[in-house]
Amino acid sequence: MFFSFVSALFNFVFYYVPAGPLSYMCILLKVFGIASQFNTIFVLVEMRLPPANTGSSLVIILTVGTATAAISPYLAQASAPFPMIISSLLALGNLFLSLGLTEPGLYLPRAMKLSENVTILQLE
User: Fold this and answer.
1) Is residue 51 within 8 Å of 110, Cβ to Cβ?
2) Distance between CA atoms of residues 78 and 71, nearest Å
3) Would you tell me how many other CB atoms lie within 10 Å of the CB of residue 45?
């Protein structure tokens, strides 16, 4: 959730700072926020989704993320206010969707039990 906020904040600030080192710093921090969101997906999925759905959930999440990254250059070519508005709305949407997640570790005992069964099967 923090990284969604960082990404949205520096995307918004980027359009109001003058060209130069500050604008490059805003872009760097926005990319940092996006990369951090991408890396925390694996931890969130493992801790907040049932173990049986982990693989398919990761495929859906990563496919949507890759598709969004693929169309981002086309969004950037839109006229002046629209790239800021669209990317800020996506980042804020991500922030609000993350508030609807289940509590952390809810499915962790089931995942540990499943991993213990897999370990026992592999040893036998």
Assistant:
1) yes
2) 12
3) 17
Q: Where are the domains of the chain?
A: 2-123
Length of the chain: 124
- 72's CB contacts (< 8 A; 6+ apart) are 87
115 — pLDDT class (breaks 50, 70, 90): low
DSSP state of 53: G
Q: Chain centroid to CA 26: how far? A: 18
- What are the Cα distances from residue 82, in Å, to 19, 41, 60? 19, 27, 26
Instruction: Find out whether 11 and 31 touch, Cβ atoms under 8 Å.
Output: no
CA angle 61, 66, 70 (to 5 degrees): 150
Quote the CA–CA distance of 40 and 33 in Å, as a whole number.
Answer: 11
Give Cβ neighbours of residue 94 (< 8 Å, ≥ 6 apart): 4, 37
Closest CA to 88 of 9, 3, 1, 2: 9
The tens digit of pLDDT for each residue in 70-90 reads 787 777 778 878 887 887 887
